[in-house]
Amino acid sequence: MWLQHRELRFSAQGYAKAMQHGATASEISEPLSACIQCGACNLLCPAQIDLLAMIKTCKKEAGLPKIETERFDQDCFTIASHAAIQQNLNADDFYIIDATAFHANYAQRVEYYEALRQATGCSINLDLQRIAIPTGINHDSDTFNSNKQIEWLFQGRVFNRIIVENKKEQRHLALISGKEVIHISELIRGKNA
Known about the structure:
- This protein is α/β, with parallel strands linked by helices and 193 residues long.
- The chain has 2 domains: 2-61, no CATH class; 74-189, Rossmann fold, CATH 3.40.50.
- Helix content is 48%, strand content 7%.
- It has helices at residues 2-5, 12-20, 29-34, 40-44, 51-61, 74-80, 83-88, 99-104, 106-120, 146-154, 170-177, 184-189, and strands at residues 93-96, 123-124, 161-164, 180-183.
- A 4-stranded parallel beta sheet has the order 2-1-3-4.
- The longest helix is centred in the middle third of the chain and has 15 residues, at 106-120.
- The radius of gyration is 17 Å and the shape is elongated.
- The N and C termini lie far apart (35 Å).
């Protein structure tokens, strides 16, 4: 949200400050509607406030549509940590972590993905703080543009193919990038390796 708006009110900190000063959920509904609920705010909050829970409650109070986030459960993480993933990743691949699931299990998964990046040389959608940058696919609204988010993700990266954990991202990423987009399960089967 910050990348697209550059305004404090379009941030979890902005919501929290507004609420502390008496704002109602409906008064901050415009910036709330931009939130894709990826969970990064909880990791970055120095006061360890459950901002994601606050955001979900505020969205409900403001009558904003509920965002269905597909959780990357333990079985899927087992797929992502399969030895064939590392063996079939190339240095010119861009591996896109499912940000929502990654943030929900950050402590357990950050070391794995950093080791994967170091072992393969592939690019991963982690920022310098090791927070996963979400694609925002399936959340286009008046206040959030997933195409703009993806273009920002691609900026400065050179890659030949994209590897995704979330199958819902395949088609959209292929259309925007013009590159081959492969789901991690295909790497395990050896397809396109």
